[in-house]
Amino acid sequence: MTAPTDAPPAGSSQHSPGRLAFLGLCLVLIGVNLRTAFSSFSAVLTEIRASGSVPDWAVSLLTTAPVTLLGIFAPLAPVLARRFGPKRVLLGAMALLTAGLFVRPSEWGAAGHLPGLILGTALCGAAIALCNVILPSEVKQDFSHRLGLMGGLYTAAIVASAALGAGITYPLFQATGSWSSALLSWAFPAFAVTLLFIPVAVRARPVRRRVEGGGTNVWRSSTAWHVTLYMLFQAMTSFSVFAWLAPILRERGVDGVTAGLMVSASIGLQILGSLFAPTLAARLWDQRALNVTLAVMTSLGFALSVLGPLELIWVWIALLGLGQGALTAAALTMIMLRTRDSHTAVNLSGMMQGVGYGVGSVGTLMVAQIHQSTGSFVPAGYTFLVIGVGASVFGYLAGRRRNVDA
Predict the structure, then answer these.
(1) DSSP letter string over 358-374?
(2) What transmembrane ranges does the database entry give (predicted)?
């Protein structure tokens, strides 16, 4: 039996089939730009450190701050969406992301690259936070009759974004001989999507509603907190993988090209996982077994990538990739399956991504501190087995067939 969903809202009927298809394409392309800022930096982190551009204290900042910013700016998204309309906020966020990607690799005279890296990373984090929150509610609003399909497509696009950043950045560095040029290249696809989305945002009218029509107060819902904590543990693992999997593999003796290929292969499998998870979740009576299974797969895959025999590293990479992609998609799908309308969906999205990413950023910082204090990633492998237990517990609770406004 299919999990309960909304009837197609009035918003979707206002679009002709052609405009609806174009909107869907734009949302997917926005998703393709939402993780390159993270995975591209990780792909050339070894070269950036070797260049002397980033001191050790800044490495922790630049790998942790983006995820922290996702949490800080996520609660702002529902407020901006109610004031200006979600599509116009998406357009502004993509323009901000483009600016951040242009600024990030720039050199600031005697100060070097560090100011640009910090400012550009901050702009990217703020922009991605707004897009992260609004995309699920837009899918809920305009594609409620195709939640599984569109949920799978846009989450797969986000995962593909991470794969592109991880797999292409190092070859770009080899081709140009410059890590700054390799990072700069990611500003151009973001700029292209910004231009493409302008007509959609211009046609959209700002949504002005009474306070009582703005959705349920999700902060008082136990179900919302279960979904949020599920997202939190998922984020601790996911962003640690984006930031540290390549350095972990290289520390284990894998060369830069092969490490990038392995990360890309893992994230490529994430795309496959993220495509099937939303459709499967929407068709199930509840999602308890699915959520727990995916949490176990992901934590085991990450831990074994650090601790397991190197001869089987491709097996661990595959387990991690399939599990993490489906886990991320399942967590995001909870936004749509646990709400009755798009206004409650954007409120839940802001809450779960604000708390989930804000606190979840501790994962990347924890890996950095563990490595800095012990000189090894091995303790981090055991740590993420414990994190997997937390994801399993709250994944089970979030998977129960309950709405946040019940």
Answers:
(1) HHHTHHHHHHHHHHHHH
(2) 20-45, 57-77, 89-105, 117-135, 147-173, 179-202, 223-245, 257-277, 289-307, 313-336, 348-368, 380-399
Q: What is the pLDDT of residue 222?
A: 94
5 found inside a domain: no
Least confident window among 215-229, 274-288, 361-375: 361-375
Looking at the structure of the chain, the number of domains it has is 1
Across the chain, what does the average pLDDT equal? 86
Residue 6 domain-assigned (yes or no): no
Give the pLDDT band of residue 323 (cuts 50, 70, 90): very high
What φ, ψ does residue 156 adopt, rounded to 5°? -65, -35
The stretches of 51-186 forming alpha helices (DSSP H) are 56-73, 76-84, 86-103, 114-142, 147-176, 179-184
Name the nearest CA neighbour of 333 among 272, 290, 278. 278
pTM given for the model: 0.77
Domain assignment of residue 181, given as a range: 16-208+218-398
**DSSP H helical segments within 252-341, as ranges?**
256-283, 288-307, 313-337
What's the CATH code of the domain at 271? 1.20.1250.20
- Residues 6 or more apart in contact with residue 27 via CB below 8 angstroms: 135, 138, 139, 150, 154
Give the contacts of 21 (CB within 8 A, at least 6 positions apart): none
H/E stretch holding 48 reads helix 45-50
The confidence score (pLDDT) of residue 137 equals 84
Residue 251 placed within a domain: yes
Tens digits of residue pLDDT in 267-319: 788 888 888 898 899 889 999 999 999 999 999 999 999 999 999 999 999 99
